[in-house]
């Protein structure tokens, strides 16, 4: 990896004009897992959650890594400014479909500030979302490029790019309240969650249980096209619609290059998600 300019900042400062930056200089910063729980619980809107998670510094290892990558950079992006902060959820605030991934890519979301934007996985993913009527454009290369999700929202189970793309269990758990709050705030509109890969599938179930849904026992196995309906637990909630959870192989370079997942396979899952969300 080539080094960027010596004067480069390790991360974009909140309020400095980055397209779509949800935070300002007054956004509260979580520095511990306890801070994350408190700030997530008190967020009153998806905009609040996005702002607060985008400045989180609760996990020392992830903060060091994401900011190191923002300075050392990949050679092909050596002249670009990297976001270098947690990547918040984004999309429709009344989404009926939530697309859940593992974590931002070091030179994708960690560079652009938007999950799946600017990397090879996103190239395949957004093309499918566009074909299925869930994205306004067939590609997403940078924040502010005009891309828009339609009746959908996108997030990661872990909001910071991790070394070797492998978050530690404590990091996953520290980050979980952000996603739990998004699920709470989407409660009235959410009908489907598409889990991109086994990690997202495993991370989702405890959060659904904590949100008041009945989780099947044993926990459902992940697979491409797996489909599970979870219902609200209490009698008061049973008047509400349940949520369908769909499994989808992650559109990673390895999976797409080997043919484990193809564009048509992604289309089948997202078309099914649209059908279930109506």
Q: Radius of gyration, rounded?
A: 18 Å
Q: What's the overall geometry?
A: globular
How much of the residues is beta strand, in percent? 5-15%
Report the top-level CATH class of the domain at 90-277: Alpha Beta
| Number of continuous helical runs | 9
Largest sheet, in brief, is: 7 strands, mixed
The named CATH superfamily of the domain at 90-277: Uracil-DNA glycosylase-like domain
What does this structure look like?
- The protein is an alpha/beta fold.
- The protein has a domain at 90-277: Uracil-DNA glycosylase-like domain (Uracil-DNA Glycosylase, subunit E), CATH 3.40.470.10.
- The chain has nine helices and seven strands.
- Helix 6 packs across helix 7 (198-210).
- The longest helix has 17 residues, at 169-185.
- It is globular.
Q: How does the SSE layout of this entry go?
A:
Elements: H1 33-41, H2 46-53, H3 60-72, E1 90-91, E2 97-101, H4 109-112, H5 120-131, E3 152-156, H6 169-185, E4 192-196, H7 198-210, E5 213-214, E6 227-232, E7 243-248, H8 253-257, H9 263-277
């Amino acid at each position: 990896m080539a080094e960027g300019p010596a004067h480069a900042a390790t991360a974009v400062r909140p309020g400095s004009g980055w397209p779509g930056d949800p935070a300002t200089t007054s956004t509260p910063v979580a520095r511990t897992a306890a801070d994350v729980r408190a700030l997530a619980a008190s967020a009153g809107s998806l905009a609040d959650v996005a702002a607060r998670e985008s400045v989180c510094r609760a996990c020392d290892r992830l903060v060091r890594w994401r900011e190191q990558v923002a300075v050392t950079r990949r050679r092909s992006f050596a002249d670009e400014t990297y976001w270098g902060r947690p990547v918040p959820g984004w999309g429709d605030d009344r989404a009926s479909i939530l697309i859940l991934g593992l974590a931002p890519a070091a030179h994708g979301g960690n560079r652009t500030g938007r999950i799946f934007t600017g990397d090879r996985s996103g190239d395949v993913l957004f093309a499918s979302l566009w074909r299925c009527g869930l994205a306004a454009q067939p590609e997403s290369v940078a924040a502010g490029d005009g891309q828009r999700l339609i009746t959908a929202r996108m997030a990661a189970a872990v909001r910071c790019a991790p070394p070797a793309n492998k978050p530690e269990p404590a990091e996953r758990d520290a980050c979980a309240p952000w996603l739990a709050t998004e699920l709470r705030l989407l409660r009235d509109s959410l009908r489907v969650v598409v889990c991109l890969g086994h990690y997202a599938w495993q991370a989702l179930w405890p959060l659904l249980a904590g949100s008041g849904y009945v989780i099947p026992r044993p926990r459902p196995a992940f697979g491409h096209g797996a489909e599970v309906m979870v219902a609200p637990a209490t009698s008061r909630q049973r008047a509400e619609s349940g949520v369908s959870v769909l499994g989808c192989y992650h559109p990673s370079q390895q999976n797409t290059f080997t043919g484990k997942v193809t564009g048509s396979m992604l289309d089948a899952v997202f078309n099914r998600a649209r059908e279930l969300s109506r």
